Amino acid sequence: MKALIFVFIGGGSGSIARYLLGKLLNNSTNGIPYGTFAANILGSLLIGVILGWALKNNTLTSHNTLLLATGFCGGFTTFSTFAYENHALLKSGDFMTFVLYTIATFTVGIIAVFGGMELAKIF
């Protein structure tokens, strides 16, 4: 039960942070979902740092990892919004933005996880 509370608190915090970032960066006039992109990339970098730190230092408890990685990063990043936005791009006929957004999200997201893991080694 305690584990669920950590995930709940982290997930709620991450969701609020993603919402605020989306309000700040998403722009309905150009249709490019910068807020979602930023959340997914920052979340990927952050989970790399958190899990890299946990592996390197063995200082994070399982509850810390549930709060930060599973909860916060899980709530902060969003595949469902990414998928919906891609659907909207395809439906509007904006194929170039769809392709660039999709490739960039996957590529930069994976690079961000590796970068986060490397950053954790430095600290």
How would you describe this protein?
- This protein has 123 residues and is mainly α.
- The chain contains five helices and no strands.
- It starts with a helix and ends with a helix.
The major sheet is characterized as: none
| Terminus-to-terminus distance | 32 Å
Task: Give the DSSP E fraction (strand runs of 2 or more residues).
Answer: under 5%
- Residue share in helix: over 70%
What is the mean predicted local confidence, pLDDT? Answer: 95
Separate helix tally: 5
According to DSSP, the number of beta strands is 0
Determine Rg (CA atoms, Å). Answer: 16 Å
Given helix and strand content, the structural type is mainly alpha
Short synopsis of the structure:
With 123 residues, the protein is an all-alpha fold. The chain is 85% helix and 0% strand.
Could you give the topology of this structure?
Elements: H1 2-25, H2 34-57, H3 62-76, H4 79-92, H5 95-122
Helix pairs in contact: 1-2, 1-3, 2-3, 2-5, 4-5
List keywords for this structure.
123 residues; globular; single chain; mainly alpha
